[in-house]
Amino acid sequence: MNRLLRVPLQIKILGLVISLLLIVIGLLTWMFAYRESEEDVEQAEDLAMQTAKTLSYMPVIQDSFKNEEPVGDLSAVTEQIRDQVDASAVLIENRDGQIFSFVGQSIGNGDPADRYRALVFGSNNLIHTGDGDEEVLKGIVPVMIRYDNYKKVEGTVTVEFDMKTIRNKIAYEIRTMLALSGGVLILGVFGSLFLARSIRRDTLGLEPYQISALFRERNAVLESVREGILAIDTQGVITMMNQSARELLDIDEKIEGKFVTDVISSQTMSEMLASSLHNSNIELQYKKKTMIVNAQPIIENNQKAGTVFSFRDRTEIKQMVDALSEVQQYSQDLRAQTHEFKNKLHVLLGLLQLHKYDKAIAFLTEESDLQEYHSTIFFQSILDEKVQAILLGKIAKASEKKIDFQIDGESSLSPLPGFIGLSPLIVILGNLIDNAFEAVMDQKIKVVSFFVTDIGSDIIFEIADNGKGISEEEEARILLKGISSKGDHRGYGLANVEEELSQLGGTIEWDSKKDKGTVFTVILPKSHTKGE
C-alpha cells in the first residue's frame, strides 16, 4: 500500500485522467452507436415509406396505370427519385405483377405475399426480408387510381434499401466518433501531463508524499523549539503559529486567518510588517512582557510574499546575561582579591627584609583583626551565603581601590527566601556598591558603608557613600535606561536594579546631599507577592 502511495504524481494524474476518459468515451460511444443505429434505421424506414407514397401519387405513375402501360419517361423519373433518396431499387408493378418500372438492383427475392396487404387492403406495408448482408428494407404502398365514383388499387410501388449500406453508414459514423474520442483522449493525456508538471513546479518538484513528510517534520520542529514562531501573508493575515508563540503571547483561541494587528496591537509590529528588510533583536512590549522579536520577510520573485516572526522572552536572554555578569563579577572579585593579597604579601616581605619585625607583627595583627571582624559579621550576623560571597568580593575590590568599605556591625541577616536568587542580588547589590565606589573615587577620604537588616516582614539594604551627591538634574533621570552623566554606553546599572526589584516586588529609595554623599535603600519583601 505504501508503495502505491509513493507513485509519482504525474503517473497518478495520467492514470486517473486516462481511466476517466476511457470510461466516458466508452459509454458515450456505446450510447451514440445505439442511438445512431436506431435513428438511421427509423430514418430509412420513414424514407422508404415516404418515397413510395410520393411515387404512388406522381402524375406520371397515375397516368401509366390509367393507360395500363408505362409512360415513356416513367423510368427516368423513377431513377431520379431513387438517386435522390439513395435507395437500392424502386419497383412499380400492377395488380397482375407486370413491371411498369424497375430501377436499381434488387438484393432480396420478390415475394408476392409482400404485396398482399397493399393490394387487398390498400394499406402501406413496411417489411424486412433476408438475413445478414442479404437483409433488405422494403416500403410497399398501393397505387390508388380514382375513377368516376370510386378508387381502385391498380398496383404497388416498392422502395428498397440495402441494410448493409445502412449499417456501413452507421459504422462510418461510429468510426468518426471514435476518432474524435481518440483526439479527446490525446488532449486529455497532454493536459494531464501539463497539469502534473504545473503542480510539480508549484510544489518545487516534490511529490505529495514528500510534501506530507515535510509538513509533519515542519510541525514537529515548530512545536519542539522554545522560540515562538508566527507567519503571516502579504495582507498581514496569520497563517501559522506554534505553541511557544501562543504561550508567550497568552493566546488560547485559534487565530489563524485573523489579522496580526488585531491580535498584537503594536506600532513596532506595524513598522515591521511594512518593511521588506530583515529586522533582528527588536524589543516588543506586549501585555507587560518584554520580548525580543526577529522578522524575516519571505521574498519570492523579488516580491514580498509574507513575513515570519520569531519571539523570545527577554527573561531568558536576561538570565544568560546575568549568568555572564555573574561569572564576570566573580572573575573581577577574584582578581581584585588576588591582587590585594599579593600587595599585602609584598608589604610583609619588605618589612621582614628590613628587619622591621615589630611593624610586620603589627601589620599581621591588624589584618588578622580585620579578617576576624569580617568573619564575625559574616558568620554570626550575615548568614546568607549569597550576600557573604558578594561582600567578600567587594571588600577585596575596595581594598585594591583604597576605599574604606565598612560593614555595619549592627547588620543582621538570616538566609534569604528561595525566590531571591544570586543573579538578582548581584545586579542589585553589585551595581549599588560599584556605583558607591565610583562616587567616592574623587574624595580624599573614601568611605562606603553597608548595612542590612531583616527585622520585620522586609529585608532592608543600605549602601552609603561620602561622595559629592546627586544633582537635581541627575536625580530626575537616574532610573532611565541608557542615560548617565558618566559617559556613553552607561546608565544601565540602576535601571537594571529597578527592573530586578520590580520582579521581586521590592522598591528602591535614595537620599542625597550635595558634597555629603548619598544613601541608597533597598526594601525587599520576604514573601513573593509581586512580579509573578
Automatic annotation (TrEMBL):
Localisation: Cell membrane
Chief site of localization: membrane
Entry GO MF terms: protein histidine kinase activity
Signal peptide residue numbers: none
PROSITE patterns reported in the protein's UniProt record: HIS_KIN
Topology relative to the membrane: Multi-pass membrane protein
Chemical reaction(s) catalysed: ATP + protein L-histidine = ADP + protein N-phospho-L-histidine
EC number, UniProt record: 2.7.13.3
TM helices/strands, residue ranges: 12-33, 177-196
Classification via SMART domains: HATPase_c, PAS
Keywords: ATP-binding, Cell membrane, Kinase, Membrane, Nucleotide-binding, Phosphoprotein, Transferase, Transmembrane, Transmembrane helix, Two-component regulatory system
Name of a matching Pfam family: SPOB_a
Limits of the Histidine kinase domain: 336-528
Name of the protein in its database record: histidine kinase
